[in-house]
């Protein structure tokens, strides 16, 4: 079935199960590399290396966020163009987006390589902790031109209706990274740089596999002679800015948190915060995979002028998001000890107890996180970047930083509670924005 017919004629509930479930599974699989990274480093290299990973990881993710900006930002106009049967326009967006990812990956790789020592020093790290963090960043920086495309090509495969292929590639990538992590850390004893190299190898291999059918002209989207314009770049940046600003703002918040935690709680507090981030990232990716995989469907139908189907698809996303988040909250709450034990050795008893307590407070986040996240994804698919950006920046930076100041008297407990309270505040803001959008367009 052609992509246009598939997304515009399949019943919304059936479409959701065909598209969202593989999308969620694929996104979970793709997020496991970060989990493997943390587990291997924590269990094999120890607590100092694990703290170094958590100090440096936000800078690595900011680099990846640029590719995600371009991938998501180009997917919106591509889907809408295909919904309008404008294939040449869609192919040009696709080709230019791939070139933009390579250029930004190369540029950011150079910047990160040379600024890594200064960035880590500004965080307040020194000695072995700083040395390990710099080494970790620099390996990713060297590989950046050849790895970041993996965060964009996944969107392009889904637009072409290759949902199962996208899911399979994400699973293959995680399996490859798992194998390379074991080889580089356990067998070859390459240290923290080996962990970064293992992840980069898996991303590069899957990028080559994913791009192969596009080069063979076997899919709806095809490479063409690129026609760059200011309007094209502006459209991509505008459509992708909500996700990008959300990612960057979240990493800036993580950097601020790590700086504070390093000073008031040392390596241990940074490690605890890392465990919270790894636990939350798993659920975050599950939500992202569910909602993001439906964006092409919303874009196709919005481009075709079928607002009723857009609403029905959005309702499916909201219901699924609620179920995922409530289930995740219960899982974190009742299995906090098992989750903590994945990253810390049994001998670190005080740190284990602190981590369990922090996780139980943090588990409340996903009681409300699902609503704001689903609405943000819905707004992006409708090419409404401004309200989506307001939501993303409020969630990732404005509310968290504000709450750090307000909850400061609670010390570490205040820092652990800022995320659940942020999610509740974003949900209220989402209701206000959604009400306005519904009145205006539906």
Count of helix runs: 17
Bin the helical content: over 70%
Order of helices and strands: HHHHHHHHHHHHHHHHH
Mean pLDDT: 86
Give the total of domains.
Answer: 1
Largest sheet: none
- Give the number of DSSP strands: 0
Overall structural class, as computed from helix and strand content, comes to mainly alpha
Termini gap:
29 Å
Low-pLDDT segments: none
C-alpha Rg, in Å? 21 Å
Outline type:
globular
Folded structure, characterized:
The chain is mainly α and 442 residues long. It is 86% helix and 0% strand. It has one domain. Helix 3 runs parallel beside helix 11. It is globular, with a radius of gyration of 21 Å. The model has no long low-confidence stretch (mean pLDDT 86).
